Amino acid sequence: MKILTTVKKVVDVELNIHVESGAIVEDGLQYVINAWDENAVEAAVVLKENNGAETTLVSLGGGDMTDIIRKCYAMGIDNGIHVDDPALEKADSSVYAKVLQKVYETGEYDLIITGKQAQDTDSGQTGIMLAEYLSIPCVSNVIEIQVVDDGNIKVSRLGDAGTEIVEVALPAVVTVSDSINEPRLPAMRGIMMAKKKKIETTDLAGLGTSYDEVGGNALKSEVVEFMKSETRQAGQKFEGDAAELAVKVVDLLANEAKVL
Amino acid sequence: MDFDLTKEQEMIRKEVRKFALKEIDPIAGELDEKEAFSEELTQKMGEIGLFGMFVSEEYDGQGMDYISYIIAVEEIARIDGSQAATIAAGNSLGIGPIYYFGTEEQKQKYLPGLCSGEGLWGFGLTEPTAGSDAGGSKTTAVQDGDEWVINGSKIFITNAASDMTMGVTVQAITGTRDNGKPEYSCFLVESGTPGFKAVPMHNKLMWRASNTAELYFDDVRVPKENILGNKGDGFHQMLKTLDGGRLSIGAMGLGGAQGAYDLALKYAREREQFGQPISKFQAVAFKLADSAMEIECARNVLYKACWLKDQKRPFEKEAAMGKLYASEVMSRVADHAVQIHGGYGLMKEYKVERFYRDQKLLEIGEGTSEVQRIVISRYIGC
């Protein structure tokens, strides 16, 4: 089985983000792997360990992706492709999906595993759009993947009311929830071996396409302004007589928090 | 000049930090309180590759440079001194002598099991009556046909009495040199060898979740091929081992200082007195500023010593400086950190008291601060 996983580099939100004139200030930002994509990588590596598979990771976007791809190598991914094209800076989910379609077509993969969404945009579109462009099935919010045979997998997906068990024919796209696994910490030897592995770098022309062809000049959506979330206020702690406190808390809930 | 770490070294720092926060931090206090060595945690540390870090891959090591190893010890020590001690002693004292001085057969036999973290190995040097005066040790080994017969005892030996311990390296007198001084050789003694007994030591002030042992050798017979390297090389092997070991103790001082400082800074920013966070008071802010400065200096001297070692250049003076300075920095930083915590700093529910206790060993173990000053003074021509 050949598995393709996708990894997006997102801003590390644990560090302070500064916003000026409706845009994030790029200076001093640090990037990490999108957490859901890390689940996708782990799921691919687990399938490889249990069933035997060749795992390939693709990462889109300009800039240095070496750290992120090497970390995935250290976790057990076999091959890494970086589509390094500055034109992708402003890309939306549809453009990403079109580029991934081109990557898929060069490699004849059986299964594509992506995170169900990215931490930065939370749009959750790319994997589903990719399946649509490829005219193959897609199962989203998956929490378990089992291989049935060479041509079929059985997956569990988390719905509102319960868990659905879906059998799906390959090739297919699966987008995974963070409940599917706990990504491993790479072992030291994996980190050292990752250093020796090659990262294949290409661009849109290398994939036989152009920014215009993947829809970059006709974006379906565009971020026009970014507003930072309000910082959460610290909670209040009350001490004293229980009866008096109850009155006070009810008053605050009704008149200050306005939740009653 | 380049102060940047490589991408691998940065990744090692990041991943070891995550491991320490996830696996060690939640249980470090309880293990310390119960004075419990955790086999399970040691095996987990083995699984992610914290043993045999500087050992080449042919012996199942991780094939890293020395600075990567030191960064890993630093990151573990940032969370817990006991686990850092298991790693530092396991690598520098357990694995190091076999890797650097062992025969090919010895390396093939012992290193894979030690590098995977399945087993631990102790290094028996200190004796009840021979600490700083390592030349005053009394343990002897006498050749009898195809065997060596070892008699004597050792004390304060890390990793030597756990259920995972596979054996110890022991230094013993094997004769007299031409100058009349004793001749030393080192021997590999496997756990379970008749006459060899390892007894855990308890009621420690610090490193309470690490394994510490007294070793007894009562007519212990080992085959002659269990001698480490050549007869008479023991003193040289011990000095070389301690040179490398100093870097890992330095890393424990650096990491421990960073951990205590992190706790103090967080507390000082949250704790309010007189209507503002105490970090805004100069008396507290200056303690934190001094701590940050000293940690930065300790990191620079220690990393430079590691860099020299990785470049295969002389590093012994810098290793002594790194060990001495980082351990004394941790002493001052932990002291500030407890002072900043006030009364809470004296309570076991606050982690900072463990750092305060754990630091004391660093000024005593693997060459006291006084011995480090002797080493440095000799290098500068005193």
Notable characteristics:
heterodimer, A: 260 residues, alpha/beta, Rossmann fold, 9-stranded mixed beta sheet, two-stranded antiparallel sheet, 6 helices, B: 382 residues, alpha+beta, Butyryl-Coa Dehydrogenase, subunit A, domain 1, Butyryl-CoA Dehydrogenase, subunit A, domain 2, Butyryl-CoA Dehydrogenase, subunit A, domain 3, 3 domains, 4-stranded antiparallel beta sheet, 10 helices, 10 strands, 17% strand, globular
Structure summarized in a few sentences:
The complex is a heterodimer of chains A (260) and B (382). Chain A is of the alpha/beta class. Helices cover 28% and strands 26% of the residues of chain A.
How would you portray this structure in words?
The complex is a heterodimer of chains A (260) and B (382). With 260 residues, chain A is of the alpha/beta class. Helices cover 28% and strands 26% of the residues of chain A. In chain A, α3 crosses α4. Chain A starts with a strand and ends in a 5-residue tail after the last helix. Chain B is an alpha+beta fold and 382 residues long. Chain B is 51% helix and 17% strand. Chain B has 3 domains: 114 residues, Butyryl-Coa Dehydrogenase, subunit A, domain 1 (Orthogonal Bundle); 112 residues, Butyryl-CoA Dehydrogenase, subunit A, domain 2 (Beta Barrel); 144 residues, Butyryl-CoA Dehydrogenase, subunit A, domain 3 (Up-down Bundle), CATH 1.20.140.10. Chains A and B meet through α2 and α5 of A and α1 of B.
Q: CATH superfamily of the largest domain in chain B, please?
A: Butyryl-CoA Dehydrogenase, subunit A, domain 3
Order of helices and strands of chain B: HHHHHEEEEEEEEHEEHHHH
Number of distinct beta strands of chain B: 10
The biggest sheet of chain A, with number of strands, parallel, antiparallel or mixed sense and barrel status, is: 9 strands, mixed
- Give a quick account of the main beta sheet of chain B: strands, pairing sense, barrel closure: 4 strands, mixed
Q: Give the count of structural domains of chain B.
A: 3
Radius of gyration of chain A: 22 Å
Distance between the termini of chain B: 31 Å
Task: Report the CATH architecture of the largest domain in chain B.
Answer: Up-down Bundle
Protein chain pair with the most extensive contact, residues per chain: A-B, 15 and 20 residues
Strand content of chain B: 15-25%
Q: Report the average pLDDT across residues of chain B.
A: 96
